[in-house]
Every structure is written in C-alpha cells, then in structure tokens.
Amino acid sequence: MRVVDASVGAKWLIPEPDSPKALALYGDVLHAPDHFPIEVANVLHTGEKTGRITDAQVLLGDLLIYLPTLHGTVALLPRALEIASQMRRSVYDALSAHAIAEDHVRPGRLGLAPD
To answer: Do 89 and 81 meet the contact criterion of CB atoms below 8 Å apart?
Structure first.
C-alpha cells in the first residue's frame, strides 16, 4: 500500500528535481489523507502567485481527475497522535503515512478492505 502526501501530488503537476520519482507512482493504487487536494491546491495557488506556474485552475483540474483514494482523517487522529509521540514525528506525518496504512489493513474503522 502506498500513502502519498501533498508534496507528491505537487510534483506530479509542477516540475521539480524529484518529479520523475513522483510520476513513477502515478497509476499505482495510491491512498492519501482527505486534505490532500486542499494542500496541493494551496501549492498551486502559491506557485501561481510567485509566477512559477501560470494556470493553477487547469492543473487543479488535472489533479481532481486522478486523485488517490482519500481517507477521512478525524477518526484517525487519536492513533496518529500516539504514533507521532512514539516515533517523534509530526502528527501530520504520522497521519499521512502510518495511521492510514494501519487502518487500511484493519477493516472496519473506515470500511476499507485489506489489499
């Protein structure tokens, strides 16, 4: 199971040195927190404001066609906080990577089936 965050989504749309690695994931079955498109939209907005890109709306449209499977995050926050404390990582990182992956392989909380 691959869980991606907004940095990967942004690299799909805005060329960066690591974009080829991000694009290599495109087409895989991907999962992301439900705030993924909001964060990518913010990156696009910032890119347009700074002149790095010219049409954030078009790029956002491309993203919305090929979104990863989105997972609600509120129910996962208690576990994400626990993981963040244990691993000394941010709650955001714990939520994006670990809590979603755990929930995916334990059916029931979000109604997901294991891979």
So the answer is: no
pTM of the model: 0.77
Burial 15-29 (b: 16+ CB within 10 A, else e): eeeeeeebeeeeeee
- CATH for the stretch 1-71: 3.40.50.1010
Separation of alpha carbons 81 and 90, rounded Å: 8
Per-domain residue ranges for the chain? 1-71, 73-115
10-residue mean pLDDT series, the chain (115 residues): 87 94 87 92 97 96 93 86 88 74 48 31
Helix (H) or strand (E) holding 32: strand 30-33
Name the token pair of 3.
């869980």
